[in-house]
Design a protein that fits this description.
Elements: E1 3-9, H1 21-33, E2 40-47, H2 50-56, E3 62-67, H3 76-84, E4 89-92, H4 103-109
Parallel strand pairs: 1-2, 1-4, 2-3
């Protein structure tokens, strides 16, 4: 498998949290699912959030994991995603962002002979 798309999700309230995070999580997952490049998985990590698990339980091509709530913006959710990832490369997607349909394809084209690539479209 070429890529693991790691999405850390905290839907519990916190100061400065974005609005409509449930809808944004589903939009983010859908944008990953709709990639033109197909050799990837989606790993969603629920940061102490049962609602995240409920929302993605039936999503296609999504593996989800629950971790106990840790320090806000700590590395726990992403580290768990990395631990569970099966892809050769890790890419991140925050719940309030989305990928263009060729995002992974563009990254893949620029990986030749590089250990890592920073890409922001």
């Amino acid at each position: 498998m070429r890529f693991s798309v790691v999405i850390a999700s905290l839907l519990a309230p916190y100061r400065g949290a974005a609005h409509d995070r449930e809808a944004k999580l589903l939009r983010a997952v859908a944008s990953a699912q709709q990639q033109s490049f197909r050799d990837f998985e989606i790993v969603v990590v629920a940061d102490g959030c049962n609602r995240t698990m409920e929302l993605v339980k039936d999503a296609v091509n999504v593996r989800s994991f629950f971790i106990e709530r840790g320090k806000l913006f700590g590395g726990g959710p992403r580290n768990k995603g990395i631990d569970e990832a099966k892809g050769d490369y890790i890419v991140y997607l925050d719940i309030d962002d989305l990928y263009g349909e060729n995002h992974l394809s563009i990254i893949d084209k620029h990986l030749d002979n590089h250990d890592w690539v920073w890409f922001n479209d």
